[in-house]
Amino acid sequence: MSTAITENKFSFEETFELVKGQNIEQTMRSFAERMQIYRAGIKEIRTKLEILDEEFQTKFSYNPIHHIESRLKSPQSIVKKVKAKGLPVTVESMSANITDVAGIRVICNYIDDIYRVAELLTGQDDVTLIRVRDYIKNPKPSGYKSLHLIVEVPIFLSTGPVPIPVEIQIRTIAMDFWASLEHKLKYKTDNDVSPELRKRLKVCADEIFALDREMQNIHTTIQLRNDEEQ
Ligand code: 0O2
Q1: pTM of this structure
Q2: For residue 12, which of 73, 110, 79, 64 has the smallest C-alpha distance?
Q3: Average pLDDT in the 27-36 region?
Q4: CA 192 to centroid of ligand 1, rounded, Å
Q5: Which atom of ligand 1 is least distant from the CA of 81?
Q6: What mean pLDDT is predicted for residues 164-176?
C-alpha cells in the first residue's frame, strides 16, 4: 500500500493569483504552513483507518478496506474553486471555505464495509462529522456513487491544536472502477461527452451496482454459514 500523498506544486500563474496585491514572502509562507496542516490531517485520518482495518484483520481475519488513496488538492484546483465561489484568492478564504484540500479515498470490498468504516471513524472522540453526502443512496445524475464525508480532526502543533477538515470518499472497488474510468473519459474528451454516451455510462453504473449488491449477498451468505459452523 502506497503511503505517498499526491501533491502538485504551484505554477507561475497560480502563484501570481495567490500573491496579487499581497506580500509575496508572507503569503507563500502561510500557504506552505497551511498545506503542512492539511498533510498532517491526511496522515491522522489515514492512520485511524489503517488501525481499524488491522484490528478487523486481527480479530475477524477480515479486511473491510481494500486500499486507501490520498491527495492534497492541486493549487490550480484550489484557485479555480475559490474563484468559482466568488471568493478572494487568499490563504484565509481557502482555509475558511474549501473543505476538500485534504482528500482521502477509501476503497472497500463490499457496500456494508463502506457504512461500517464511516461509522467507526466518525464515532471516534476526536473526529467531528461536518457533512455527509450519500451518493450511494442518492446517486448523482451521471450514475456516480460514493459516500462523501467531511470530518474535522485536531492537529497538535507546537502552538496548540488546530482543527482541520478532511474530505473522505468511501466506495467499493466496483464504484471506484466506474468513477476512475468515467473521470478519465470526461477529462480526455474535455467534458464533451454526448448524451448517448452519458446514457451508456449510466447503464454501466447501474450494472456495476447490481454486481456490488450480488457480491454483498454472496459474502453475507458465506459469513452466516461460517458463523453457524463455529
Ligand atoms: P477532485 O480532484 O476529485 O477533488 P463542495 O464545493 O466541495 O461543497 P462539490 O465539489 O460539488 O461541493 O462536492 P461533491 O459533489 O460532494 O464532490 C465532488 C467530488 O466528487 C469530485 O471532486 C469528484 O472526486 C467526485 N465526483 C462527483 N461527481 C462525480 C461524477 O459524476 N463522476 C466522477 N468520476 N466523480 C465525481 P472534484 O472537485 O471534481 O475534483
Answers
A1: 0.91
A2: 79
A3: 90
A4: 17
A5: 6
A6: 98
* Chain segment 187-222, per-residue pLDDT in tens: 766 557 889 999 999 999 999 999 999 999 999 999
Q: Specify the ligand 1 atom closest to the Cα of 142.
A: 31
Angle, CA 80 vertex, CA 77 and CA 81 arms, to 5°: 85
Q: Name residue, grid cell 487568499.
A: 90
169 Cα to the center of ligand 1, angstroms: 9
Ligand 1: atom nearest CA of 143 is: 31
Instruction: Find cell 502538485 and name the residue.
Output: 8
Q: Are 97 and 85 in contact (CB under 8 A)?
A: yes
Give residue 110's pLDDT band: very low, low, confident or very high (50, 70, 90).
Answer: very high
Confidence check: pLDDT of 2 > 70? no
Q: To which H or E segment does residue 87 belong? A: none
Q: What is the DSSP string of 79-126?
A: HHHHHHTT--SSHHHHHHH---SEEEEEEESSHHHHHHHHHHHHTSTT
Give the mean model confidence (pLDDT) for residues 96-107.
97
pLDDT band at 186 (very low <50, low <70, confident <90, very high): confident
CA distance 3 to 164: 20
Say if residue 112 is exposed, middle or buried (CB neighbours under 10 Å; 0-12, 13-18, 19+): middle
Grid cell locating 184 = 478519465
Residues with CB under 6 A from ligand 1: 73, 77, 100, 103, 133, 140, 142, 144, 148, 179, 182-183
CB atoms within 10 A of CB 125: 5
Cα gap 5→103, rounded to integer Å: 10
